[in-house]
Amino acid sequence: xxxxxxxxxxxxxxxxxxxxxxxxxxxxxxxxxxxxxxxxxxxxxxxxxxxxxxxxxxxxxxxxxxxxxxxxxxxxxxxxxxxxxxxxxxxxxxxxxxxxxxxxxxxxxxxxxxxxxxxxxxxxxxxxxxxxxxxx
Amino acid sequence: xxxxxxxxxxxxxxxxxxxxxxxxxxxxxxxxxxxxxxxxxxxxxxxxxxxxxxxxxxxxxxxxxxxxxxxxxxxxxxxxxxxxxxxxxxxxxxxxxxxxxxxxxxxxxxxxxxxxxxxxxxxxxxxxxxxxxxxxxxxxxxxxxxxxxxxxxxxxxxxxxxxxxxxxxxxxxxxxxxxxxxxxxxxxxxxxxxxxxxxxxxxxxxxxxxxxxxxxxxxxxxxxxxxxxxxxxxxxxxxxxxxxxxxxxxxxxxxxxxxxxxxxxxxxxxxxxxxxxxxxxxxxxxxxxxxxxxxxxxxxxxxxxxxxxxxxxxxxxxxxxxxxxxxxxxxxxxxxxxxxxxxxxxxxxxxxxxxxxxxxxxxxxxxxxxxxxxxxxxxxxxxxxxxxxxxxxxxxxxxxxxxxxxxxxxxxxxxxxxxxxxxxxxxxxxxxxxxxxxxxxxxxxxxxxxxxxxxxxxxxxxxxxxxxxxxxxxxxxxxxxxxxxxxxxxxxxxxxxxxxxxxxxxxxxxxxxxxxxxxxxxxxxxxxxxxxxxxxxxxxxxxxxxxxxxx
Amino acid sequence: xxxxxxxxxxxxxxxxxxxxxxxxxxxxxxxxxxxxxxxxxxxxxxxxxxxxxxxxxxxxxxxxxxxxxxxxxxxxxxxxxxxxxxxxxxxxxxxxxxxxxxxxxxxxxxxxxxxxxxxxxxxxxxxxxxxxxxxxxxxxxxxxxxxxxxxxxxxxxxxxxxxxxxxxxxxxxxxxxxxxxxxxxxxxxxxxxxxxxxxxxxxxxxxxxxxxxxxxxxxxxxxxxxxxxxxxxxxxxxxxxxxxxxxxxxxxxxxxxxxxxxxxxxxxxxxxxxxxxxxxxxxxxxxxxxxxxxxxxxxxxxxxxxxxxxxxxxxxxxxxxxxxxx
Lengths: 136, 551, 326
Hints:
The complex is a heterotrimer.
Chain A: E1 7-13, H1 20-31, E2 35-43, H2 45-55, E3 59-64, H3 69-82, E4 89-94, H4 101-106, E5 111-113, H5 119-130
Parallel strand pairs in A: 1-2, 1-3, 3-4, 4-5
Chain B: H1 6-23, H2 50-55, E1 79-80, E2 83-84, H3 89-101, E3 107-110, H4 113-116, H5 140-146, E4 156-160, H6 165-178, E5 187-190, H7 195-201, H8 208-225, E6 229-230, E7 232-235, H9 237-241, H10 246-266, H11 271-274, E8 278-284, H12 288-309, H13 315-318, E9 322-326, H14 338-352, E10 357-359, H15 372-387, H16 402-425, H17 428-433, H18 436-453, H19 481-496, H20 499-514, H21 520-528, H22 533-544
Parallel strand pairs in B: 1-10, 2-3, 3-4, 4-5, 5-6, 7-8, 8-9, 9-10
Helix pairs in contact in B: 3-5, 5-6, 6-21, 10-12, 10-16, 12-14, 12-16, 14-15, 20-21, 20-22
Chain C: H1 17-22, H2 26-37, H3 43-50, E1 58-64, H4 70-83, E2 93-99, E3 108-110, E4 125-131, H5 138-152, E5 157-163, H6 167-175, E6 178-183, H7 192-196, E7 204-207, H8 215-228, E8 240-242, H9 251-268, H10 270-298, H11 303-311, H12 317-324
Parallel strand pairs in C: 1-5, 1-6, 2-4, 2-5, 6-7, 7-8
Helix pairs in contact in C: 2-5, 4-9, 5-6
């Protein structure tokens, strides 16, 4: 139990204030037994990478709806590499056009989830990425 | 209960209806159906009980359940106002002129996020955001570009701007003056609703207390200088988008409205001197009957609050006038064409609920910023409702429906319960600082999500009737060069203006912010001297600090 | 931060976690705290090796009911220590923010970083969120170890923030040399700390959100309550202070009061007494754990089976213990 606790950082990079999705996902992950560090709005890539390091998280979930993902997400990925945090899996949610997904994945993002994704899918993806079996 | 009161109706016809008809004749001499059945202006029950007179009443008369005007859309259709803002002032200007040429009757400006949070394009946090969700406006020159060749005295303009509303309004006025317009004749709305930013939308800058001072400064200044302007648009839309229920949308919006009226009264303004300039903004969600009832309940509840709590005597102070936008969060990325049907149902609810203006969302909004074609379909949807559906041809046609009246009563009752709880906190600001509305909304949002995931709530194309086709709409891209171009223009502006004058004004503004005088005149002077949005908001940040939310 | 490099030794050898922490490697520190949280069998040895580097930090516990603005106050205090105050130079700051674990799922949402945004990017600050993880008393153990890790890494001030409800949280606060209890003008006349039974553990009482209506009433109620408690006579009179963390008002004065309390602890001998008390309680706890572990590993008897017998009234708990220890 404690030994396999998954720690997840949920952050909103950029300036958009729509945190409904981020909060719903945070709650769903908590209800799936994970520890969620929620950092809130207006996070710079530097803040996100610093928090990931200090909190020693296994997974980062980034929610962005403003369209700034193309600029901000690759920066997060670069900073994580610079800090030696390559093992941290990064998932992105929000309004991301299909055509942008290949670039995000090329920068190291593990998965991209658009509007309407069931939270159960997010929980499963995180457990799969951590090699933790689904209970039940 | 009581017998028929024909004299009440006669009085309404003489006092309310006839003067209105004289001032604004109806669109047609006669309204009728395909079967040539004439449509009456307003339908009434054969007999109205005292209770019905008190709760439902007549259109254009307290408590305004049936609408704020006696003839509603028979006199004038609602304003069709599509929210639009594209990257640069020039692109947005072109879009506005396109929409005006297509029959749109009002302009609505969407700003990018750096503008909404008071940062210039060269600020670190503006990286990747400039021009993304709206237009980047950092100076009066940019504002002039935005409205080039659009006579500002003749259009009404709605600006979705909150924390820096005073600055953008000052830029609009300065741009209008440079066109030669008389500020006293400018018509439009600024959103200026800071309280819902803390609850739901997130584009706040300062803490609630100094923010409320800016709001009341705007109220007081506009009352004298911009009499035709709506100084606030108290918004439930974003509360609903954040996941609230219909009842919460009404309750938290009106609780915020109460806080604004309180603040203005404390600032020494008489309620009837500013209340007619308050406007509201609601969403139109999928549940058709509940939505119609919601609008009617909100109107009645506000009228009562204004009369009983604030003792407003001017009927215009008691009227809840509102803009509606169809609910963006109900749109699906899957089978996006279905969204046209959703928007139609939502828009019809807004029309039958008596909205004053309407934005219909574009079908592709769940995927990206809307394309021109999708925007056009959305506008056409409104035009079809206005001219083909007949829904606009008789006033409040759902009144008297057992279902709609019962829902109206119930929404009002539940909203009143919430407002009582907020009063116990000491009002909306204290409740927000305790995180109360935020927590209630989050709970509702989580429940709604669970309902979809467990299949209790069917969403067509998402958890039922799926087709497995991947979403494939063309999406609009923002040219990444926009950010550099805006930075370049900013540099050029700073280079050409009088630097020492700018520095002096910044210092004066910071000092004034620590004092108590109305800040609007000084902010106007600042923008007229080419100070930028980021500089002005920066001076206020220096004086007031920045808001950090409670978890 | 007090960074000192040990002699490099064999340049080809990878530095150990202990060495990396001692050298101020933030990632190594984060890893060690995770190992502490996971009860990693190697964690005690690492902490043991770092023990000589600990004992230097100024450790402050901050507790109070939800909604009193604790996190904002912790962030503001951290800022004040980082800048330095009138009588004291700047200090590095480590923060442990402890929040409860959901009893239903075992998960947690840890949101304290939201209020600590202004500290971002400062290498002299390290923030770690911890969930209580339903450890039944083990929580204070984990936070104590995490404090030692931060201490060993050279953080000069360590702020531990806990929600002042629940015994575990109170215990954590009680363990720290300086305890701050935060109150704010609430919706009624209630003093939340009194309800929670944590008023008496305060070395400093703070009325936060002092710009809100009702703050003076809360302030006076607290002063009156302390007055009722009578003079302790041993030199430290618990001050009641007002802060508005959101604007920073009163925060420097609070930082100064923390320094004063630390000086008092040092000069009066109270600090040594508390440290001995804390060490003794800690040793007792460790001994209990180890003895139990030793007993368990001896594999003499099945605890669950014995519990079944007690529950079925086949034997009494007293008899069961005698039996288990045979």
